[in-house]
Design a protein that fits this description.
194 residues; mainly alpha; Helix Hairpins; 3-stranded antiparallel β-sheet; 8 helices; 7% strand; globular
Length: 194
Protein backbone atom coordinates (compact mmCIF):
# COMPACT_ATOMS: atom_id res chain seq x y z
CA UNK A 1 0.00 0.00 0.00
CA UNK A 2 1.19 3.49 -0.84
CA UNK A 3 1.08 6.52 1.44
CA UNK A 4 0.92 10.24 0.80
CA UNK A 5 4.48 11.57 1.09
CA UNK A 6 5.13 14.53 3.34
CA UNK A 7 6.01 17.76 1.64
CA UNK A 8 9.71 18.67 1.92
CA UNK A 9 8.63 22.09 3.30
CA UNK A 10 5.64 23.57 5.13
CA UNK A 11 2.39 24.29 3.27
CA UNK A 12 3.02 28.02 3.61
CA UNK A 13 6.70 27.90 2.62
CA UNK A 14 6.27 28.84 -1.03
CA UNK A 15 4.78 32.16 -0.04
CA UNK A 16 3.27 34.39 -2.68
CA UNK A 17 4.10 31.96 -5.49
CA UNK A 18 1.88 29.10 -4.26
CA UNK A 19 -0.33 29.88 -1.28
CA UNK A 20 -0.86 27.75 1.80
CA UNK A 21 -4.50 27.26 0.80
CA UNK A 22 -3.49 26.00 -2.64
CA UNK A 23 -0.83 23.67 -1.26
CA UNK A 24 -3.26 22.15 1.27
CA UNK A 25 -5.86 21.64 -1.44
CA UNK A 26 -3.39 20.25 -3.98
CA UNK A 27 -1.27 18.05 -1.71
CA UNK A 28 -3.60 17.07 1.11
CA UNK A 29 -6.70 16.49 -1.03
CA UNK A 30 -5.78 15.90 -4.67
CA UNK A 31 -2.61 13.90 -4.15
CA UNK A 32 -4.21 11.96 -1.28
CA UNK A 33 -7.08 10.99 -3.60
CA UNK A 34 -4.64 9.56 -6.15
CA UNK A 35 -2.92 7.52 -3.45
CA UNK A 36 -6.23 6.22 -2.07
CA UNK A 37 -7.54 5.24 -5.51
CA UNK A 38 -4.21 3.64 -6.44
CA UNK A 39 -4.38 1.44 -3.34
CA UNK A 40 -7.94 0.40 -4.23
CA UNK A 41 -6.87 -0.39 -7.82
CA UNK A 42 -3.99 -2.54 -6.54
CA UNK A 43 -6.29 -4.31 -4.10
CA UNK A 44 -8.70 -5.11 -6.95
CA UNK A 45 -5.85 -6.81 -8.85
CA UNK A 46 -5.72 -9.43 -6.10
CA UNK A 47 -2.10 -10.30 -6.92
CA UNK A 48 1.00 -10.34 -4.78
CA UNK A 49 3.14 -7.45 -5.97
CA UNK A 50 5.88 -8.28 -3.49
CA UNK A 51 8.18 -5.30 -3.08
CA UNK A 52 7.63 -3.85 -6.55
CA UNK A 53 8.28 -0.12 -6.82
CA UNK A 54 5.71 2.31 -8.13
CA UNK A 55 7.72 2.56 -11.37
CA UNK A 56 7.57 -1.22 -11.80
CA UNK A 57 3.84 -1.35 -11.06
CA UNK A 58 3.10 1.45 -13.52
CA UNK A 59 5.04 -0.27 -16.29
CA UNK A 60 3.63 -3.75 -15.56
CA UNK A 61 0.01 -2.51 -15.42
CA UNK A 62 0.11 0.40 -17.86
CA UNK A 63 -3.01 -0.90 -19.63
CA UNK A 64 -4.98 -0.82 -16.38
CA UNK A 65 -6.69 2.58 -16.51
CA UNK A 66 -7.09 2.96 -12.73
CA UNK A 67 -3.44 2.15 -12.05
CA UNK A 68 -2.20 4.26 -14.96
CA UNK A 69 -4.22 7.30 -13.89
CA UNK A 70 -3.90 7.09 -10.10
CA UNK A 71 -0.41 5.59 -10.03
CA UNK A 72 0.67 8.24 -12.50
CA UNK A 73 -0.94 10.91 -10.33
CA UNK A 74 0.99 9.64 -7.31
CA UNK A 75 4.25 9.38 -9.28
CA UNK A 76 3.98 12.82 -10.90
CA UNK A 77 2.91 14.66 -7.77
CA UNK A 78 5.60 13.00 -5.65
CA UNK A 79 8.17 14.35 -8.10
CA UNK A 80 6.49 17.75 -8.41
CA UNK A 81 6.70 18.58 -4.69
CA UNK A 82 10.45 17.91 -4.84
CA UNK A 83 10.92 20.19 -7.84
CA UNK A 84 10.16 23.24 -5.69
CA UNK A 85 11.75 24.88 -2.68
CA UNK A 86 11.33 28.11 -0.72
CA UNK A 87 15.05 28.56 -1.47
CA UNK A 88 14.61 27.82 -5.17
CA UNK A 89 14.72 29.94 -8.27
CA UNK A 90 17.64 31.49 -10.06
CA UNK A 91 19.73 29.67 -12.62
CA UNK A 92 21.00 26.12 -12.25
CA UNK A 93 24.65 25.19 -11.99
CA UNK A 94 26.62 22.01 -12.44
CA UNK A 95 25.68 19.18 -14.78
CA UNK A 96 22.08 20.29 -15.28
CA UNK A 97 23.22 23.75 -16.36
CA UNK A 98 25.49 22.09 -18.92
CA UNK A 99 22.68 19.91 -20.27
CA UNK A 100 20.50 23.01 -20.67
CA UNK A 101 23.26 25.14 -22.24
CA UNK A 102 24.27 22.37 -24.66
CA UNK A 103 20.71 21.85 -25.85
CA UNK A 104 19.22 25.37 -25.70
CA UNK A 105 22.20 27.70 -25.88
CA UNK A 106 21.17 29.65 -22.79
CA UNK A 107 19.12 29.35 -19.64
CA UNK A 108 16.63 31.95 -20.91
CA UNK A 109 16.12 30.03 -24.16
CA UNK A 110 15.37 26.95 -22.08
CA UNK A 111 12.92 28.82 -19.82
CA UNK A 112 11.16 30.23 -22.88
CA UNK A 113 10.84 26.81 -24.53
CA UNK A 114 9.77 24.99 -21.36
CA UNK A 115 7.19 27.70 -20.60
CA UNK A 116 5.81 27.62 -24.15
CA UNK A 117 5.57 23.84 -24.01
CA UNK A 118 3.71 24.04 -20.67
CA UNK A 119 1.33 26.64 -22.09
CA UNK A 120 0.62 24.39 -25.08
CA UNK A 121 -0.81 21.53 -23.00
CA UNK A 122 -4.45 21.22 -23.98
CA UNK A 123 -6.58 20.61 -20.93
CA UNK A 124 -4.77 18.78 -18.15
CA UNK A 125 -1.25 17.40 -18.12
CA UNK A 126 2.41 17.82 -17.26
CA UNK A 127 5.62 19.24 -18.68
CA UNK A 128 8.85 17.38 -17.95
CA UNK A 129 12.56 17.96 -18.39
CA UNK A 130 14.28 14.70 -19.26
CA UNK A 131 17.91 13.88 -18.33
CA UNK A 132 19.02 14.46 -21.95
CA UNK A 133 17.51 17.97 -21.91
CA UNK A 134 14.41 17.10 -23.92
CA UNK A 135 11.19 18.84 -22.85
CA UNK A 136 8.08 16.69 -23.18
CA UNK A 137 4.40 17.01 -22.35
CA UNK A 138 2.12 14.22 -21.22
CA UNK A 139 -1.67 14.30 -21.00
CA UNK A 140 -3.60 13.68 -17.81
CA UNK A 141 -1.40 11.69 -15.36
CA UNK A 142 0.79 9.90 -17.90
CA UNK A 143 4.46 9.70 -17.02
CA UNK A 144 7.57 9.60 -19.22
CA UNK A 145 8.43 6.11 -17.97
CA UNK A 146 5.27 4.81 -19.65
CA UNK A 147 6.71 6.12 -22.92
CA UNK A 148 9.87 4.07 -22.38
CA UNK A 149 11.83 7.17 -21.34
CA UNK A 150 14.08 7.77 -18.35
CA UNK A 151 12.66 9.21 -15.16
CA UNK A 152 12.46 13.01 -15.49
CA UNK A 153 14.60 15.44 -13.53
CA UNK A 154 12.04 18.26 -13.37
CA UNK A 155 8.28 18.56 -13.84
CA UNK A 156 5.53 21.13 -13.80
CA UNK A 157 1.90 20.30 -13.08
CA UNK A 158 -0.36 22.21 -15.46
CA UNK A 159 -3.67 20.77 -14.34
CA UNK A 160 -5.97 23.63 -13.32
CA UNK A 161 -6.10 22.29 -9.76
CA UNK A 162 -2.37 23.11 -9.50
CA UNK A 163 -2.95 26.84 -9.83
CA UNK A 164 -6.62 27.84 -10.00
CA UNK A 165 -6.98 28.97 -6.37
CA UNK A 166 -4.13 31.48 -6.76
CA UNK A 167 -4.11 32.26 -10.48
CA UNK A 168 -7.63 31.42 -11.67
CA UNK A 169 -7.33 30.68 -15.40
CA UNK A 170 -4.00 32.50 -15.85
CA UNK A 171 -1.72 29.54 -16.52
CA UNK A 172 0.96 31.82 -17.99
CA UNK A 173 1.20 33.77 -14.70
CA UNK A 174 1.47 30.52 -12.73
CA UNK A 175 4.27 29.25 -14.97
CA UNK A 176 6.14 32.55 -14.71
CA UNK A 177 5.87 32.51 -10.91
CA UNK A 178 6.96 28.85 -10.72
CA UNK A 179 10.46 29.66 -11.97
CA UNK A 180 11.03 31.54 -8.69
CA UNK A 181 10.70 28.34 -6.66
CA UNK A 182 12.28 25.70 -8.93
CA UNK A 183 14.64 23.55 -6.85
CA UNK A 184 17.66 23.18 -9.12
CA UNK A 185 19.68 21.39 -6.44
CA UNK A 186 17.14 18.62 -6.25
CA UNK A 187 16.97 18.42 -10.07
CA UNK A 188 20.76 18.15 -10.14
CA UNK A 189 20.60 15.23 -7.71
CA UNK A 190 18.07 13.40 -9.88
CA UNK A 191 20.27 13.98 -12.93
CA UNK A 192 23.30 12.54 -11.13
CA UNK A 193 21.38 9.34 -10.42
CA UNK A 194 20.72 8.66 -14.11
Amino acid sequence: MFNLPNLPYNNDALGSYLSEELMKFHHDMHHQAYVDKLNVAIDVLNVDLGDKTLDEILIAYKDNVAIRNNGGGHYNHSLFWNCMSPNGGGEPSGAIAKVIADRYGSYQNFVDEFSAKALSVFGSGWTFLQPNGEIINTPNQDTPILMGLDSPVLCLDVWEHAYYIDYRNRRADYIKAWWNIVDWKSAEQRLKHK
